[in-house]
């Protein structure tokens, strides 16, 4: 209770027995009777109140209660015959922009002037109680924000305004505030704190843009931080709760304005641009033909060429997402800086390609090193006079003159400790369990592995792998013994790539195999690759479409082996980006987020739990549709599958994705990387004990699950409450039936029938949004920024002994290897993008952190539980640090070995290869 009192502001009212009783009523009253208060709140005239704003636990001002007034009201026999009107003070925190353009500055000055003549920001308090005479919620008299014009030139990030309400003493407890913005310009409303009620300060965490009433006439509704299940909503708030949800729920009609707050669903029909030519047309993703999750609807007009394709908004014009989902200023600044950097990095090689009419290959590995040492300008040979003659914005020229570092890439971590680590087999294998894509490796149960594809279309299902390929690498064991002792593992990309290979290999400068890689678990606990199978579609009966490459025995086989590993890494990079990263975290979470805003009120406890895990996801997904996954966008340009990238993603959604297998324990068991073991702390036994992603991930999964369970049990003491929660059931039903409509009939969807179901579903969503995304995202530049380590694109197949290219390969194998990698233009463009995607912004919120940590909920018990969760994250971070120093854990510690920090909870800004943000925010 001490922490609860400190947080909720009760320490100031402990001086009187009445105030203490009121405090106990507020905090100890059963959740299921929250809308009934045993004691009427006492309203205190401002002239009798002492305001103390110095308390550390609450950022806003705190109300004190007049002792004289309390004594006067503490006599049980004293019943006021008539309601008395009092003044109540509100402190309103508005967040300023750091930088404004000329238009915004003019609007700001005009609003300051207009405020003086009555075009104000108007607020109205709404009680949790209903007026028995009118049968409508009790309302205060309207109040306006004071000193707007006086504070219009304040440069602080946050500006505090006040307002005074006239409230009757029988008003009850304030549950909502309406806000009307009669200015010309929107403003960001962070919090409102009310002072003057006996229950202590009442907090309203708003965190929303309030639009001008000329653009959006309806009043904005903000609720206090008290959570309520729908059935327990106080009478005075029921109508407002329903209205607020109706206001932001789209109906599938109309084109959205950037200032709208409308959440609705649509298919991915805006990736192509058929008006610019058939080469830029792309199939619609979502629907019976190509199943896919739904995205946020924008309602733009269709293209001229294809009525079923939505017209595009090309950068730098913004894409619509609901106004509150857009990046805040510091995030936008970081992303814009990264985008500028990307433009510079892709612009310069483009210019060079134009000037020389060549698309440069890397001629030697030293060419790649130059990108980190001397910068791109030096590499491509653009002289100062050429640079200055180019029609570039002044900002770009200034950057060139003032900071050439922007044109130079940071050295990726993978070569910072050991420049040649990427060449070693043990490092190639280590990255399968502790690199940027540690989620595809599986335990091999049957040898040789077998395809599940239709043999009539894709040829024999049997693998070309034979016992003789691997028997010499099993430390004296037979293949059967190795299987029985769980010593063999596989990364299998055969079935996901093979259906697309004919089309991919017909593209200019794109060549791929469908790969399988077999690994052996050594007595040291490390993995070693022992065979790579490379498959192509059969061209006819008896054609040799499969090839097995084994570890080298001489110089020639060494280069063949390096090329085979490069093809494996290219397969891995594609599946990582298109399936594990984009599909499984970004795209598949979007329907749950849209449905949450549409079906869960802001006062719903589950919305309050999920809120930080939904931040920025709709915006980053919209930006991806605009620049990354669109036709001829970064992904198509930089990855081997080219224009078929998103179709591969859709095939994975249809054939492999299952929500019930997205939680970490279920995924590890599905892949055979763990078996249930109740004697273990997390209920699992890992088959590779030193599996850094799984080891650290299980710590975070368990912490999330415990936090979610304590949270859910607080509001749902029995399962009937889950079944009867209309908003909760509508959220889950819409997430599945609308957001994932193409898979809604799948039998594997979890039910939402009891408390256990709810804990499991919420834990999975939070895991995907936080730790799973972090593990897959923030290592992209540290591991992929050195292109030979993880080439996203391969341009040449491995030469056959009787082929035309074999002689040139033998004559200069390094040149052949480098010519198979992405070109200079492709590589630098890719590096610039993954550099941006791997960057933490300064306003990042990490797991265990929240905006307004002490007041996001009015439930003091939950606030205490959240601080315990935060403390657990700090303990996990210390344990991860300890593991990374343990020399017995060779997959994360050793000479030149990168520590595994992708699941370390905290990080500083920038590219750090660590840190777990709450949400999919980049």
Summarize the helices and strands and which ones pair or pack.
Layout: H1 2-8, H2 17-28, H3 67-74, E1 85-95, H4 102-116, E2 121-131, E3 136-139, E4 143-144, E5 158-168, E6 174-181, E7 187-195, E8 202-210, E9 220-223, H5 235-248, E10 265-266, E11 295-296, H6 329-356, H7 365-373, H8 376-380, H9 384-389, H10 394-402, H11 413-416, H12 425-434, E12 442-443, H13 455-458, H14 467-470, H15 479-484, E13 488-492, H16 494-497, H17 501-505, E14 514-521, E15 527-535, E16 546-549, H18 555-599, H19 605-610, H20 617-628, H21 634-638, H22 645-655, H23 664-670, E17 674-676, E18 684-686, H24 692-715, H25 719-723, H26 726-739, H27 755-777, H28 780-784, H29 806-811, H30 813-820, H31 824-837, H32 860-883
Antiparallel strand pairs: 1-5, 1-7, 2-3, 2-4, 2-6, 6-9, 7-8, 10-11, 12-13, 13-14, 14-15, 15-16, 17-18
Helix pairs in contact: 1-32, 6-31, 18-22, 18-26, 18-27, 18-30, 24-27, 24-32
Describe the protein's architecture and organization.
This protein is of the alpha+beta class and 922 residues long. Among the domains are: 144 residues, Sandwich (Lipoxygenase-1); 159 residues, Nuclear Transport Factor 2, Chain: A. It is built from 32 helices and 18 strands. Strands 2, 3, 4, 6 and 9 form a five-stranded antiparallel beta sheet that branches. Strands 12-13-14-15-16 form a five-stranded antiparallel beta sheet. β14 and β15 form a beta hairpin. α6 runs antiparallel to α31 and α18 crosses α26. Its cofactor is Fe cation.
CATH topology call of the domain at 415-573: Nuclear Transport Factor 2, Chain: A
Q: Work out the radius of gyration.
A: 30 Å
- What is the CA–CA distance across the termini? 38 Å
CATH class group of the domain at 415-573: Alpha Beta
Helix content: 25-40%
Q: Which CATH architecture of the domain at 415-573 is right?
A: Roll
Structural class: alpha+beta
Beta-strand fraction estimate? 5-15%
């Amino acid at each position: 209770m001490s922490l609860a009192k400190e947080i909720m502001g009760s320490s100031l009212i402990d001086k009187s027995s009445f105030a203490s009783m009121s405090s106990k009523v507020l905090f100890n009253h059963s959740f299921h009777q929250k809308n009934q208060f045993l004691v009427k709140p006492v309203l205190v005239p401002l002239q009798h109140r002492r305001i103390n704003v110095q308390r550390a636990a609450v950022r806003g001002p705190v109300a004190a209660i007049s002792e004289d007034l309390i004594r006067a009201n503490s006599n049980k026999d004293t019943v006021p015959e008539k309601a008395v009107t009092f003044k109540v003070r509100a402190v309103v925190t508005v967040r300023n922009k750091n930088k404004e353009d000329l238009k915004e500055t003019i609007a700001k000055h005009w609003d300051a002037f207009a405020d003086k003549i009555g075009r104000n920001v108007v607020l109205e308090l709404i009680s949790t109680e209903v007026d028995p005479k009118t049968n409508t919620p009790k309302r205060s008299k309207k109040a306006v924000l004071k000193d707007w014009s006086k504070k219009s030139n304040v440069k602080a990030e946050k500006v505090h305004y006040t307002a005074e309400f006239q409230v009757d003493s029988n008003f009850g407890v304030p549950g909502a505030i309406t806000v009307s913005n009669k200015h010309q310009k929107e403003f960001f409303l962070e919090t409102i704190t009310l002072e003057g009620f006996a229950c202590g300060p009442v907090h309203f965490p708003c965190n929303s843009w309030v639009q001008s009433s000329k653009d959006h006439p309806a009043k904005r509704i903000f609720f206090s931080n008290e959570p309520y299940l729908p059935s327990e909503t106080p009478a005075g708030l029921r109508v407002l709760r329903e209205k607020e949800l109706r206001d932001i729920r789209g109906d599938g009609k109309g084109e959205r304005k950037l200032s709208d707050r409308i959440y609705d669903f649509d298919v991915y029909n805006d990736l192509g641009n058929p008006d610019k030519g058939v080469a830029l047309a792309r199939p619609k993703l979502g629907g019976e033909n190509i199943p896919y999750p739904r995205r946020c609807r924008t309602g733009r007009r269709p293209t001229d060429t294809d009525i079923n394709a939505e017209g595009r908004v090309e950068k730098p014009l913004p894409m619509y997402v609901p106004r509150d989902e857009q990046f805040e200023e510091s995030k936008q600044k970081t992303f814009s800086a990264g985008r500028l950097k990307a433009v510079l990095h892709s612009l310069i090689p483009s210019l060079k390609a134009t000037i020389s009419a060549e698309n440069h290959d890397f001629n030697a590995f030293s060419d790649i090193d130059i990108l980190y040492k001397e910068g791109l300008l030096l590499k491509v040979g653009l002289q100062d006079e050429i640079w200055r003659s180019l029609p570039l914005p002044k900002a770009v020229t200034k950057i060139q003159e003032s900071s050439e570092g922007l044109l130079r890439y940071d050295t990726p971590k993978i070569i910072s400790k050991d420049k040649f680590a990427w060449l070693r087999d043990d490092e190639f294998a280590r990255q399968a369990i502790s690199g940027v894509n540690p989620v595809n490796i599986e335990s091999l149960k049957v040898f040789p592995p077998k395809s599940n594809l239709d043999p009539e279309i894709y040829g024999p299902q049997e693998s070309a792998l034979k016992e003789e390929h691997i028997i010499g690498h099993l430390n004296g064991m037979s293949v059967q013994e190795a299987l029985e002792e769980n010593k063999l593992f596989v990364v299998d990309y055969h079935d996901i790539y093979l259906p697309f290979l004919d089309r991919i290999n017909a593209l200019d400068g794109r060549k791929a195999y469908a790969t399988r890689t077999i690994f052996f678990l050594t007595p040291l606990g490390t993995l070693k690759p022992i065979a790579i199978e490379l498959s192509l579609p059969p061209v006819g009966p008896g054609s040799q479409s499969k090839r097995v490459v084994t570890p080298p025995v001489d110089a020639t086989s060494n280069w063949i082996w390096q090329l085979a590993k490069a093809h494996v890494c290219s397969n891995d990079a594609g599946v990582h980006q298109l399936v594990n990263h984009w599909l499984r975290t970004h795209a598949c979470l979007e329907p749950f987020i849209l449905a949450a805003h549409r079906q869960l009120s802001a006062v719903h406890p589950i919305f309050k739990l999920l809120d930080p895990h939904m931040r920025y996801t709709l915006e980053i997904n919209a930006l991806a549709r605009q620049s990354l996954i669109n036709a001829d966008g970064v992904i198509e340009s930089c990855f081997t599958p080219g224009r078929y990238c998103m179709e591969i993603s859709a095939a994975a959604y249809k054939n492999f994705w299952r929500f019930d297998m997205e939680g970490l324990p279920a995924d590890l068991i599905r892949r055979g990387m763990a078996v249930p073991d109740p004697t273990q702390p997390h209920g699992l036994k890992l088959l590779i004990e030193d599996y850094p992603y799984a080891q650290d991930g299980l710590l975070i999964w368990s912490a999330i699950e415990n936090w979610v369970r304590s949270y859910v049990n607080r509001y749902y003491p029995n399962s009937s409450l889950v079944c009867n929660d209309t908003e909760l059931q509508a959220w889950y039903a819409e997430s599945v039936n609308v957001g994932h409509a193409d898979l809604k009939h799948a039998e594997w969807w979890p039910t939402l029938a009891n408390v256990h179901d709810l804990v499991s579903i919420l834990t999975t969503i939070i895991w995907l949004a936080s730790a799973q995304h972090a593990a897959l995202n923030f290592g992209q530049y540290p591991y992929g920024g050195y292109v030979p380590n993880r080439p996203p694109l391969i341009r040449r197949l491995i030469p056959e002994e009787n082929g035309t290219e074999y002689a040139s390969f033998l004559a200069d194998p390094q040149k052949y290897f480098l010519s198979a990698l992405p070109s200079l233009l492709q590589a630098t463009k890719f590096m610039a993008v993954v550099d941006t995607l791997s960057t933490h912004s300064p306003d990042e919120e990490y797991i265990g952190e929240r905006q307004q940590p002490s007041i996001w909920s009015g439930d003091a018990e939950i606030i205490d539980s959240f601080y315990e969760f935060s403390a657990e994250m700090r303990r996990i971070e210390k344990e991860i640090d300890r593991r990374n120093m343990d020399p017995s854990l060779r997959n994360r510690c050793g000479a030149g070995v990168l520590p595994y920090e992708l699941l370390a909870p905290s990080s500083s800004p920038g590219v750090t290869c660590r840190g777990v943000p709450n949400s999919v925010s980049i």
